[in-house]
Design brief:
Layout (H helix, E strand, L loop, with lengths): L1 E6 L2 E8 L2 H16 L9 E8 L3 H19 L1 E11 L2 E10 L2 H4 L7 E2 L5 E4 L5 E8 L1
Antiparallel strand pairs: 1-2, 2-8, 3-5, 4-5, 6-8, 7-8
Helix pairs in contact: 1-2
Length: 136
């Protein structure tokens, strides 16, 4: 599950999953939904991503910024992600294709993940949440 939450001029992204890996993957889809319609993306190509940080919150910010970089610099758009986090190291595969503005109906280009409302934690129901506000 993923969702957006309101934050003045920017937008919050949140991923929820049964593991931290799943929450990060869902937050990636939430980020893509800020940009356009991830359900219109054909997962025809794979992009390998990696980052490392000392704590889960910094790892999350680095993860979201890595995705923003792939969109801005390499014109990737993703429909889903497979994420593995072990000992502060994130390795992921994004499934997607090059951006086609007509078919993907792009709306906004995010600039960066921020530390506003940054949270990575396990909820009492056992699910994980990963969220932050993204500067758009």
């Amino acid at each position: 599950m993923w969702e957006h939450f309101a934050h003045q001029a920017d937008i919050g992204i949140r991923g929820v999953g049964s593991t931290m890996d799943e929450a990060f993957a869902e937050a990636g889809v939430a980020l893509m939904a800020v940009i356009g319609s991830p359900d219109k993306v054909r997962p025809t190509k794979q992009c390998v991503l990696a980052c490392q940080a000392d704590d889960p919150e910094q790892l999350f910010v680095d993860w979201i910024n890595a995705l923003i970089f792939e969109v801005a610099a390499n014109h990737w758009f993703f429909s889903r992600f497979a994420v593995t986090i072990r000992d502060g190291k994130l390795s992921a595969t994004g499934f997607g294709e090059p951006i086609d503005p007509e078919r993907h109906e792009t709306a906004v280009e995010p600039k960066a993940a921020t530390y506003l409302m940054l949270e990575v934690r396990q909820r009492p129901d056992g699910n994980w949440i990963a969220q932050c506000v993204v500067d758009v």
